[in-house]
Amino acid sequence: MNDKAAVLADAGDNTRLAHIGNDPAEFYGFVNPPVVHASTVLFPNAETMEKRAQKYSYGTRGTPTTDALCDAINELEGSAGTILLPSGLAAVTVPFLAFLSAGDHALVVDSVYSPTRHFCDTMLRRLGVTVEYYDPAAGADIARLMKPNTKLVHTEAPGSNTFEMQDIRAIADAAHKGGAIVTMDNTWATPLYFKPLDHGVDISIHAATKYPAGHSDVLFGTASANAAHWPQLWEGNFALGICGSPDDSYQILRGLRTMGVRLERHQETALRLAEWLEGMDGVTRVLHPALPSFPGHALWKRDFKGSSGIFSIVLDAGSPDRFRAKAHAFLDALRIFGLGYSWGGYESLAVHVNLNDRTVCTAPKEGPVLRLQIGLEDIADIRADIERGLAAAAAV
Length: 396
Hints:
Blueprint: H1 2-9, H2 13-19, H3 46-51, H4 64-77, E1 81-85, H5 88-99, E2 105-109, H6 114-126, E3 130-134, E4 150-156, H7 168-177, E5 181-185, H8 190-193, E6 203-206, E7 221-225, H9 230-240, H10 246-277, E8 283-287, H11 297-303, E9 310-315, H12 323-333, E10 338-339, E11 349-352, E12 369-373, H13 379-394
Parallel strand pairs: 2-3, 2-4, 4-5, 5-6, 10-11
Antiparallel strand pairs: 1-7, 6-7, 8-9, 9-12, 11-12
């Protein structure tokens, strides 16, 4: 097995995804780790129980199933440890709670996932933490926003719904110089296309609900820390008593095996459609970092190995009073796309984006923003469905 580990260290993404997080020799040769349901774990004697001197002591401290998933995520992230959470939002909020205290100041990118903003504006505020939202283009200039009590800088690249890029290394260096830790929501790229810890981030966060699960039937989150911050992240999560279930962990492990090939398909189809949409009547902008026309394209090209299957378009509405009607006409005409808030699954989805909570990255003036999750359907069918939507919007 040591020889296999050495080979996998230099293997390609799909080879690693097929083999990490499982050791058939530990489970009688079965390829997939078993689903171990556990709360109580028995000890052979009182001394072992007193010292917890065995690998497993209680369900909240891990099972063979959850450990297998943690091992796989650590391999992908290059992290010292990973905690498993019951949702992507929990994967954001638990690190915040583990590292922030009353009287602290946190900097959060303005293009952040909107439920994260809600948590900051409600729970963190009630707990005495001040949150300030910053421009994703800040880069090294974020140093100007740092205060003596700034303890955490949260990043997300690309940003939710509008896909602004960030200079993660420059932000991390400035934040560390000011004594803050850096967290990053990296759900869009996954560690296959961007590895946050290699760019100075301390805690990498994923909504594993999306591409790792891949089938729109699991809610899950992971947060992975470097060696310096792993003990505090683990202790914070243990104190909160939040765990990922073994059944969901098994589903995520199974999804990981095909994530690479699925991402390749998502990426190829989405980019081809984004390029096509740039020239379509009724579309004023296509918000996709892999397009050379996108303002953050140079950062994406410098730091990322690929792009995923979600981007947005801005319709040409003419006047603000037609935004809603145009968006609804587009969405209601779709037949292949589902109308749903998630993404990362096998099916295409569309949603009219609400950007009313933004303070820096405000909504485009030309028209409504429609976020498109490009699934695994044939590109000709997806394209025809988008054409149906555009025709309906044009008729309003």
